[in-house]
Amino acid sequence: MKSYLSIDLDYWFYYSSPKSINSLKRILDQVKNIPDKLLVDEHHNLLDQINSSQCDKIIHVDYHQDLVFETKGPFGKVGDKIECGNFLYFVNNKENIDFDWYYPDCDECIKKGLGFCMDLSYKPLAKNNFVYKNQKRKCGLPTNKELENVTSVGIAFSFDYLVIDYDRINHFMKVLKWLIEIFDFETVKGTMINYPLMNDWEEGQEILYLLGE
């Protein structure tokens, strides 16, 4: 069994219920020595890595499901463009892959439908949205045991969904330092430098300072 671990930082930094970043540190510590790891700006840029991983399971840690089925609706057809909210639909051989989605908040992500990446008229729980071999959703995070078979790791900043306000800036700075330890300084700097708000607020200058700008 080979598992692919997909992590979106919006799990910890989006909407009204930010989660303790210590839980992220636990996961990063377990997978930091895996050779096949990738850091990207937007989540759909992990698609090639997922397809080359030959995984049997995708462990998706994200505020959003990032999976919609092929249909027309208020936002068009899913096949029109691969983007962060639909890229998991385009995984090769998905009918032979298990898919576990871990989300941070049941009220926001499920009951209010904010984690489904679509208008509720899409009926996200309909049978034709179950395109993987097995699909599960769980509130919380994977255990260390569930991460034992991870052979590839992809981490996305997802800048449009990062809410880094005054109360969260110190937590975000810690995450950046952890990522620098796991990847390297130039990789994190090169990925982070395109953050559209970097030059718009005081905390952004603090991040730039950390990254050597």
Written description of the protein model:
The chain is α/β, with parallel strands linked by helices. The protein is built from seven helices and six strands. It has helices spanning 10-13, 22-31, 47-52, 106-111, 169-182, 185-192, 202-210, and strands at 3-8, 36-40, 57-61, 98-103, 134-139, 150-156. The protein has a six-stranded parallel beta sheet. Strand 4, helix 4 (106-111) and strand 5 (134-139) form a beta-alpha-beta unit. Helix 5 (169-182) crosses helix 6. The chain is globular, with a radius of gyration of 17 Å. It starts with a strand and ends with a helix. Mean pLDDT is 82; it is low at 119-126.
Task: Please name the defining characteristics of this protein.
alpha/beta
Task: Give a short summary of the structure.
Helices cover 27% and strands 16% of the residues. By secondary structure, the protein is α/β, with parallel strands linked by helices.
Indicate the structural class.
alpha/beta
Q: What spatial order of strands do you see in the largest sheet?
A: 2-6-1-3-4-5
Shape: globular
Low-confidence stretches: 119-126
Strand count, sense and closure of the main sheet? 6 strands, parallel
Residue share in helix: 25-40%
Spell the H/E element sequence: EHHEHEEHEEHHH
Strand content: 15-25%
